[in-house]
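Reading group handout, session on sequence-to-structure problems. Before we discuss, look at one worked example. The prompt was deliberately terse, the way you'd type it at a terminal:

> structure Olfactory receptor

The input record follows.
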Amino acid sequence: MIMTNITSMSGFLLMGFSDIRELQILHALLFLVVYILTLTSNLIIIIITTVDEHLQSPMYYFLKHLSLLDLSFISVTVPQSIDNSLMDNGYISQGQCILQVFIFTSLGWSEMAILTVMSYDRYAAICFPLHYEVIMNPSKCQGAVIAIWLSGSISGISYTATTFSITFCKAKIIHQFFCDVPQLLKLSCSNDYLRVIGVAAFVSVIAFICFTSIVLSYIHIFSTVLRIPSAEGRSKAFSTCLPHLLVVFFYFSTGMFAFLKLNSDSPTAFDHLISIFINIVTVDRDKN
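And the output record:
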């Protein structure tokens, strides 16, 4: 690849993986297999929770939208990375990069929001079973999902507008396999990136509030479950909560790690593994 006039070109160069051709092909094949498996599993969940009359409760309604978010999330970055590896060309146009940042940040916010709503759903189901149908009636569930998608779009617009208002004066090389906002910020030579930091700080505050809400919900849930007299009842209640709680832990911990690595000029192999985990592994999880 001839890297000429990198600073003045309209697009960017993605340098997330090795320049060795054999490793590029291996990366593309592995990503393709995982992508197909993830796509298939999420489509199956969406179809089953749509057509099966026994899976029309709020829990499965939110699960369907979580699967749709996951399907969209992995489709934003992985196909582009596969294509770049197969073509031995890390170039991505500015338009494609803008689209990646918008969709990636929108879905990231939406995923955080829907995990919070799902924890409230479990809280209402276990702590207030007699009032559950009133608390989580269909109109409220639909309103919550609409709010989740709209708020995600607003977050994505804010991130994208502030990120691409930056003057990129350094070589347009992104040390990732997708248009990563922290890596884009390193291409600025002025303080205009502080607007993005402001948006990130606001989102971080909201994320902390969501995380606190989830923790409080599960404190009440576990307190209620432990008072259930039968072991079978406790086991059934735990089985509906623990997979969701595990997903929450992985989502927030990996997201926190990604933002704490803002000052890393040259991401390590471990940093790339975290990015892969966020983009692929966390969306190919058990959604029991």
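Points for discussion. First: The domain at 12-283 is CATH 1.20.1070.10 (Rhopdopsin 7-helix transmembrane proteins). Second: The chain has one domain: 12-283.
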